[in-house]
Amino acid sequence: MKSFSTVLLLTLSSSLALAAPSATTYSAVTQHTEEEILTAARSSPVYTALEEAFRDATKASVEARQSSTTRNDLENGLCAPNIIIHARGTFEEGNMGSGVGVPLIAAVDAELGSGKAIYQGVNNYPADVAGYLIGGSRTGAQNMADQVARAASQCPGSRVFLSGYSQGAQVAHLAAASIPVSLYSVVAGFIFFGDPYEGDPLPGVLNNNVLTICNDGDLICDGLPLPIGSHLDYAKTTPRAAQWIKERAL
Predict the structure, then answer these.
(1) Under a CB-based contact definition with an 8 Å cutoff, are residues 202 and 162 in contact?
(2) What ranges make up the beta strands (E) of the chain?
(3) Distance CA 58, CA 56 (A)
């Protein structure tokens, strides 16, 4: 992960005793620790400013998107040849989010056709600023890895694609580290949008099928905690991701 080298984050780090995670080294952070960080963070004016920035970014991405932002197809017992598991960005609604999740569903359905894919959002994932600052929610990452295991058991022969936007990309990176080697063959690819961990390799052969989409000028991809500008403009990139998925789908 690129270093958070701004004065803004240095100030926040000193006030919250936080440090940015180093590249591909994911420390053990429990749900209890996340809650402690969030409790401490609420007293920081810098954290409050960051929280407001992420909330404003989420509001901007919701405009004109009316489709459901929650999908639990896998948990509801459904199967299809292709399974998309997606982790939303910070403060996005539902478990898919509208900035990437909803348009990605539409784009994949357009490419693959009806009934060829089901969708599962990541649960047990608060998608808050504290999670972003520690390098991604560990509870969300574990849920994402567990969904891969569920898919393998429930839908044998299906291909699984893991996708994440912003903090969701962090979550997908962390999930990759928790997927057993025995399930690597189930995973057909990873798609990262606005990835704070851009360039960090995934374990083993999982790194052979990765699509990272970082818009020009996206400061989040540069390691800066500023969800502005092109970081809010990934919906238009979902057709590219859907085409990439189609090339690897059943």
Answers:
(1) no
(2) 82-87, 117-121, 159-165, 187-193, 210-213
(3) 5
The closest alpha carbon to 162, from 150, 131, 59, belongs to: 150
CB 199 within 8 A of CB 179: no
User: Tokens representing 69?
Assistant: 């932002």
What is the DSSP secondary-structure string of 89-147?
PTT-STTTIIIIIHHHHHHHHHHH-TTSEEEEE--S----HHHHHTTS-HHHHHHHHHH
Catalytic: 61?
A: no
Q: Give me 49's structure tokens.
A: 């400013």
Q: Is 166 a catalytic residue?
A: yes
pLDDT, tens digit (0-9, with 9 covering 90-100), for 50-70:
777 777 666 555 544 446 999
How many contiguous H segments (helices) and E segments (strands) does the chain have?
8, 5
Q: Is 218 a catalytic residue?
A: yes
The residue that leads in pLDDT, 13 or 51, is: 51
Candidate from 148-152, 216-220, 226-230 with smallest mean pLDDT = 226-230
Distance CA 250, CA 138 (A): 30
Are 145 and 180 within 8 A, CB to CB? no
One-letter identity of residue 14: S
How far is it, in rounded angstroms, from Cα 193 to Cα 164?
Answer: 6
User: What is the Cα–Cα distance from 117 to 155, expressed in whole angstroms?
Assistant: 12
End-to-end Cα, the chain, rounded Å: 32
**Are the beta carbons of 189 and 164 closer than 8 angstroms?**
no
> Is 10's pLDDT higher than 50?
no
- 128, 166, 173, 200: the catalytic one is 166
**Is the pTM for the entire model greater than 0.85?**
no
